[in-house]
Amino acid sequence: MSARYRRPGHIMKNTSSSLHGLICLCVAAWLPLVPVAQARRGQTSAAETGAVRVMTWNVHLFGKSTFGLGGTFADDLRRVEFIIDELAQLAKEGVDVVALQEVWDDDLADELIARAGFPHAASGRDRSLRGDVERTFLGSGLLILSQYPLERIEQVAFAATEGYDSFTSKGILVCDVKLAGRSLGLVATHLHAGGGELTEENRKKQIAVIGAAIDARERKAGGLARPYLIAGDFNTSREVPARHANLLKVLGGEGRSAVDVWQAAQQTEPESGVTAASFNTLRRFFNEGRSSAGHSIDYILMRADGAGEQPFAVRCARVRRFVLGEGETPFGENPEADGSTSPVVDLSDHLAVEVELVSRPVLQVPVAGPLPKRFPESLRRVFTQHASIFGVDVIATRGVPQDKLLHAVHVLAQYLDNDEDGEADDGRVLAALRERGALLVMGSAEEDFEELEYRDLERAGFELSQDLYALETHPAGSSLSGGFDYALEEVWHLVSFGWAETYPEVFAFERGSRLAAAMDLARGGYHRRIPRRYPPEAWYSYYDRTCDYGCQVAEYFYWTLTSKLGAQCYPGRAGEIDEEWRLTTPGELEKGDRAVWSLLDDQRWKLPQVIPDGSYGG
């Protein structure tokens, strides 16, 4: 059952009717929900990538129609022009979605939609949701700008509160959007402003409304609940841990906490994440020049799907400050302690939060089907079945049971993606295999390959191939009575070439690599040719004279890795293989072959750490 190898750079013609055990290297060396109108212009965005940029920003735009309400001033109409310019630049930079708060004026909202550079938008301007239209003369102030279509757009209003918020329809604006190929819900929100115990109780109720609205929305849709991004001004300080923890707990749903992207980010800029900043000149202006302590109150949260899976990992997050350019006329002046004044240059009294998310790969469980038409007729005469994972093909003859074909491709998947997160553990290893056209060919027995010529594989672009027979493939696992599952060996022979190619100084199947040096120790010294008898101290002694030095290294790689992972130590196995290999348990290998153990246990090489069982994604 052992493999034999071609040396890179040598094309060999198949003179045998059997492919068994032969790898071919033919060329050298991845509250109520009500519909809201959507404003659209332009066409759907270009093909989506795996990276997503999302921003939330409270822009504090009341506009001329509400001038006179606290915290507003006439320069809103000039300030919005600079905000539009910044948003248009963000659209050009590739920001995918922007959630805005405090766009209170409908005319200003229309200006933003028309000129900010995003093809799709949704505005939460409905004032009727609470029923007290005479008192509620402002909408939610929420606006979503997107590069991608927004579907199922709805607005939810919070219950009436006190203070200035009682004149608004604050709540949430929720929709569906497809980002990086993933369908998810998107929520923009703005919670009660102000201080005091009553305000804090109101916020808790509003947080509960958000969670309940998402739950109701997903029950109505049916099926597995989708994940959500929840963005906005929560007026809930991260610097008060109990309040922040309650926010995450309630919005996580199903007993899970939501993820604050700032806390989950691999890197942040700056470290604090403060968005209501003491140095913000417009914030000081609204406080009559006074500075106050900074707080982190603007967030982007991630809520997992119904299975508890998060669709994105957080690459980085940053707080962005938008100010007037040099030479522009300030919006006003702030008094300083020494009697002087300083210019008001911030475009908003809030800083924005931007996050870059990376789509987590969706684990694709391989399936079997007929041989695709892309395979040439010369191979279609022999093979009828096909499966694939990560772009590596497995083809089989008609006589191979489908469960054995699937077992082989699942073993292949588990060797490449050992942690089963949906992507190959080492992209360079996978790239090496795909570049060589790695292929696993399966037959029920040797006779299935009588009509196959190696050149048929070469002409089809498969420079690296390995065979496996159904008779030696055991989906139920290895046992003394049933036999060893040779899918573990033959599939490893195929994929191990990827490590040899990617890390030649360590794993190359030739003298001089660290793996070869360890093998020489295991064989009791360097042997260019197979000796008549290996030294008695050797624990690896392979006598197949058709297996040259490179082939011996590859076999040694197989024996050592599978022994480390526990595949060679079931009852009776040691007696089956002691003529060739004698360190069959992980403990024996670690103690008896320290040179190879140090290689196999080194996390830099991203070798498999768990033996495949043929249940990828199960």
The total count of helices amounts to 17
Shape: elongated
CATH class of the largest domain: Alpha Beta
CATH-defined topology of the largest domain: Deoxyribonuclease I, Chain A
For the termini, the CA-CA separation is: 29 Å
Q: Supply Rg.
A: 32 Å
The proportion of residues forming helix, as a percent range, comes to: 25-40%
The CATH architecture term of the largest domain is 4-Layer Sandwich
Strand count = 24
Q: What proportion of the residues form beta strands (DSSP E)? A: 15-25%
Major β-sheet strand ordering: 4-7-8-6-5-19-16-14
Mean pLDDT: 87
Poorly predicted residue ranges: 1-48, 67-72
The number of domains is 2
What do you see in this structure?
With 618 residues, the protein is an alpha+beta fold. The chain folds into 2 domains: 4-30 and 371-605, no CATH class; 52-326 and 346-359, Endonuclease/exonuclease/phosphatase (Deoxyribonuclease I, Chain A, 4-Layer Sandwich). It has an 8-stranded mixed beta sheet. A 7-stranded mixed beta sheet has the order 1-2-24-23-22-21-20. A hairpin with a 2-residue loop joins β10 and β11. The longest helix is centred in the middle third of the chain and has 25 residues, at 197-221. The protein is elongated. Residues 1-48 and 67-72 have low confidence and may be disordered.
